[in-house]
Amino acid sequence: MNILGFRPVFILGLITATTLVSPAAVPAAAAPPRFFPPDAPGAAAYTLPDPLRTLDGRTITTVAEWEKIRRPELLELFRAQVYGRVPDTAYTQAFRVVSENSGALGGAATRKEIEITVSARGKALAIRLFLFTPNHATSPVPAFLLMGNSSVDHYDPAVARPSGYWPVETGIARGYAMAAFWSWDADPDQKADVDFKDGAHALLDAGPRQPDSWATIAAWAWGMSRCLDYLVTDPAIAADRVAVVGHSRAGKTALWAAAQDERFAMACSNDSGTGGAALSRRRTKEKESVEAINRLFPHWFATNFKAFGGREQEMPVDQHLLLALIAPRTVCVASASQDLWADPRGEFLSLVATRPAYELYGLGGLGDRTEMPPIGEPLHGEGAHYWIREGRHALTAADWKFYFDSADLAFGRVAPKPIR
Asked: Residue 42 falls within a domain, yes or no?
């Protein structure tokens, strides 16, 4: 290439003239697509449980069989062996609009702060929910519900700087309601709290803890559903089009919440890794193992889950079955190229393996794709959506664009395109 920008003209092998070429006239070469690197040679083989085969060996062939037999069986396995089960303690709840501002975000949105109070056994727990709805809407709109890891004030643009983690202005401009709450309102994220004496546990636990008792992720998922209890009553919200979003530990929670609560129309997992979207049976030297996550965060999962550290192949479930529980609703999985701890390839393969469940409903999932898409290029399927971006463990504006675009497809705002 002539770096000076001249185009030589040759006649009979001699340079007789030169012509200046405008840089704008020279098309820039398109950068070749970049892919997540393959696994190192010698990666351990593993076998995944069949989404459509029951514990007693029956093969599920219809939606009715899935919903009556296999889906309840899988939910019970995840409750018993991974996340724990919520107590059946009776409770009541009440909603109070603490404040309302119809001129938020420069007049583009109405901002509400709602206090959700849950009462049981003479005790009460309050969850503060921030909700922004677009003022230009003429009918109820879809909503995104985010559980954040920072105090609730971080989700109010009046006191917090704009953030890629919580792009409320972008959501409003695209016609979505945006809601957020702080995880600690539902249950503190404290590894020292292995006795579970705070938050939702203090409210609902009525007896001694068992190996399958719920832990912190299950309590957070319960909190997501309590926020949804309010959202479906708000006249500005399309109750049948609420998406739940979470990053990292909150991504694990969003998947478990949507798997249980079928009112969520869409689940968005961002870098959720082990115990979230990533396959537990996959082993790489970089990824977080079942043993490691239970050692580092002993309060997140049920006691029974700890027994599978180093014995993942013996688990009766794996995380593709968690994603399959969301079918036929929409599930979005996002990864980051440098977030090897979360195992991007394991997250992708987990989503691919949900296909049999989606096919029961006449949907294709991610189709027959077995290779990850190029970094930065989303893969939109039927019910299943995947993307991997360049960068580290974070929730960014680019991730949110993937979720907004996926919701546009899922909720019929734009026409779907065939999987490439």
From this structure: no
Distance CA 74, CA 324 (A): 10
Which of 76-90, 156-170, 220-234 has the weakest average pLDDT? 156-170
Q: Which helix (H) or strand (E) segment is 388 a member of?
A: strand 384-389
Which CATH number is 77's domain given?
Answer: 3.40.50.1820
Q: What are phi and psi of 16, to 5 degrees?
A: -110, -15
Count of structural domains within the chain? 1
Q: What is the DSSP string of 99-137?
A: EEEEEHHHHTEEEEEEEEEEEETTEEEEEEEEEEEETT-
Rg (CA), the chain: 24
Say which DSSP state 85 is in.
Answer: B
pLDDT over threshold 50, residue 14? no
Is the full-model pTM beyond 0.85?
yes
- Residue 337 known to be catalytic: no
- Assess whether 247 carries a catalytic annotation: no
Active-site entry in 225, 248, 350, 406: 248
Tokens 């954040």, residue located: 148
Q: Compute the distance between CA of residue 351 and CA of residue 344 in angstroms, rounded to an integer.
A: 11
Please state, in angstroms and rounded to a whole number, the distance separating the CA atoms of residues 108 and 171: 11
Residue 181 included in any domain:
yes
